[in-house]
Design goal:
Blueprint: H1 3-57, E1 65-70, H2 76-85, H3 92-101, E2 111-116, H4 121-130, H5 134-137, E3 141-145, H6 151-154, H7 161-167, H8 171-177, E4 191-195, H9 201-220, H10 231-244, H11 248-263, H12 271-278, H13 314-321, E5 330-333, E6 340-343, H14 346-366
Antiparallel strand pairs: 1-2, 3-4, 5-6
Helix pairs in contact: 1-3, 2-3, 3-4, 7-9, 9-13, 10-11, 10-13, 11-13
């Protein structure tokens, strides 16, 4: 027997011994790498979360003031870029993240600000929502149009209400919002506007219409396929939400009630549409009012009214675009005047109405009425 024949069994036995060790070494190595990757991922996420907290949420230490001018119509990315250019945030993305974290739904107001350096992105956002610095306002002419006013009531803010109403029907301005309507009702963005001098009514209307376009485009950009939404229908729903809601938290729920009733072919039966049809604001509506022959009478006619009944703000527009997922079909005001009770069935709704009537009657007795 030669030497090679004698060593062959030894080689085979070594191979057999090595195979299990090689397999387990691969398994152990794989899991070590897996744990290393997981650990690295957790570490990166931790560092990112810490950075976000430090840059976006954690209250800063105010330093020297920096002048910031927010132009009308600027969106989050634009404002974030301005803040980054002025050194008020590290990156515009931090400001956009603050806008997503913020739950107030308040709009940013354009104008000139004095922003202290060293603030967090969220603190800066809140300052921009509160409006321009007080000492700067003295050099500007300020016009505030509240949310939820129809054109006929918004016009009363101005020296010439007729000029405001006329401008809101100007075909050139109507073309700017690109909707089949004969007035800008619903398409004038409520906000505080600043001018270098007292503006003419048409100038205010034009600014409001342009600002509406900016806000609307910004909101639909948040929704996949948002550009396919029916603009007139969205703004009409938003105007109803604006008139019916008592708090920001209810807006998306009220929008869901509107869509649920429309889907089931139920009339909306909103008093706010009657007020618009009859120009009867601040007055008690009577049962006979529900018989008025107007396409805005949602007691008599199913579907949406032919157009908006007021000029809604950003929060109501967002609610109309992104309603809550509910099966509610009814709502009634609560006696606190600040909230509603939502119901799925008529029986639930009638119980809620009865409770409201009892509580209101009790309040009146306590007031001696």
């Amino acid at each position: 027997m030669n030497a090679e024949a004698m060593t062959e069994p030894i080689r085979e036995s070594v191979k057999e011994a090595v195979r299990p060790w090689t397999f387990w070494r691969v398994v152990v190595t794989f899991f070590l790498w897996l744990w290393a990757v997981l650990f690295l991922g957790v570490a990166v996420l931790g560092i990112f979360a810490l950075m976000v907290y430090h840059q976006v949420i954690q209250p800063g230490h105010p330093g020297p003031e920096v002048t910031l001018v927010v132009p009308e119509g600027a969106i989050g990315r634009d404002i974030g870029g301005l803040l980054a250019e002025q050194g008020l945030v590290e990156h515009e993305g931090f400001f956009r993240l603050a806008m997503r974290i913020d739950g107030t739904g308040k709009a940013i107001q354009h104008g000139e600000y004095q922003i202290p350096a060293g603030l967090s992105a969220l603190e800066i956002l809140h300052q921009l929502q509160d409006g321009p610095s007080r000492h700067v306002l003295g050099e500007q002419f300020k016009v505030t149009v509240p949310e939820g006013l129809p054109i006929r009531l918004a016009a009363d803010i101005f020296d010439s209400p007729a000029a405001f109403v006329e401008a809101a029907r100007d075909p050139a301005l109507l073309a700017a919002v690109d909707v089949p309507a004969d007035s800008l009702e619903g398409f004038l963005m409520p906000d505080t506007y600043f001018f270098d001098a007292a503006p003419a009514e048409r100038e205010v209307v034009a600014r409001m219409a342009n600002h509406f376009n900016t806000v609307y485009d910004e909101l639909i950009a948040e929704i996949p396929g948002g550009e396919t939404l029916d603009k007139l229908a969205i703004v009409t729903v938003a105007s109803l939400v604006e008139e019916e809601a008592r708090s920001d938290g209810e807006r998306a729920i009220i929008a869901s009630v509107i869509y649920n009733r429309l889907e089931k072919g139920m009339p909306l039966q909103f008093d706010s549409t009657l007020q618009y049809a009859l120009n009867k604001y601040g007055q008690r509506l009577l049962n006979v009012d529900k018989e008025v022959d107007s396409p805005y009478n949602t007691y008599r006619f199913k579907g949406l009214p032919p157009g908006p009944i007021s000029n809604p703000g950003r929060a109501s527009l967002r609610a109309a675009m992104q309603p809550a997922e509910t099966d509610y079909l009814f709502f009634v005001s609560n006696a606190d005047g600040e909230s509603h009770t939502f119901s799925r069935t008529l029986a639930e709704h009638e119980r809620a109405r009865a409770r409201y009537n009892r509580e209101i009657a009790q309040q009146r007795r306590e007031l001696g009425q």
